[in-house]
Amino acid sequence: MNLLDDATTGELSGLEQLQALIASGVRPAIGEALDFDLVEVGKGHAVLEGRPGPSVMDLVGTVHGGFAATLLDSACGAAVHTRISPTQGYTTLELKTSYHRPMTAETGLVRAEANLISFGRRAAFASAALTDADGRVIATATSTLLVFERSV
User: Fold this and answer.
1) Contacts by 39-43 with C-beta closer than 8 Å and gap 24+?
2) Is 34 within the bounds of a domain?
3) Torsion angle, CA of 13/14/20/24, rounded to 10 degrees?
4) Is 139 helix (H, G, I), strand (E, B) or coil?
């Protein structure tokens, strides 16, 4: 299900679409599954917040790296989304993630903050950092995204 495919979003810019999504309080399915929310957007900027729970723990009792990568990827995608036109879409081509410290159940709320580096006709580049409540960096990422025209 695409949350942005109703009659009103066909005329909204990407930034307006995300602002409407935040205002609605609706989460994409991935946000429901992993317990994270899009909490802030601006031109070329996006912030997600989440709380790692038992469902994302790995075999040794730390949060699986995929949780951090998903938040960083989603934040980079949202930063790009703020710049697309009503007829454009995007998809991740590459995500490079660096892990700086482990996350555990005690880490609590984490924040993924992404900024657009550049936005072209066919490609966009973004970077993001995932931090804990004390501002300590947990992981960082850079992302390359393909920008394309969607069929309507």
Assistant:
1) 41/15, 41/78, 41/82, 42/15, 42/82, 43/15, 43/82, 43/83
2) yes
3) 150
4) strand
The CATH number of the domain where 62 resides is what?
3.10.129.10
* Count of structural domains within the chain: 1
Predicted pLDDT at 151:
77
Helix 65-81, helix 14-24: angle, nearest 10:
120
Is residue 96 over pLDDT 90? Answer: yes
Cα torsion for 128, 119, 32, 35, to the nearest 10°?
10
In single-letter form, the type of residue at position 130 comes to: L
| Distance in angstroms (rounded) separating the CA atoms of residues 37 and 112 | 10
Residue 1 lies in a domain: no
Q: Is 131 within a domain?
A: yes
Whether residue 139 is contained in a domain is answered as yes
pLDDT tens string 28-50: 999 999 999 999 999 999 999 99
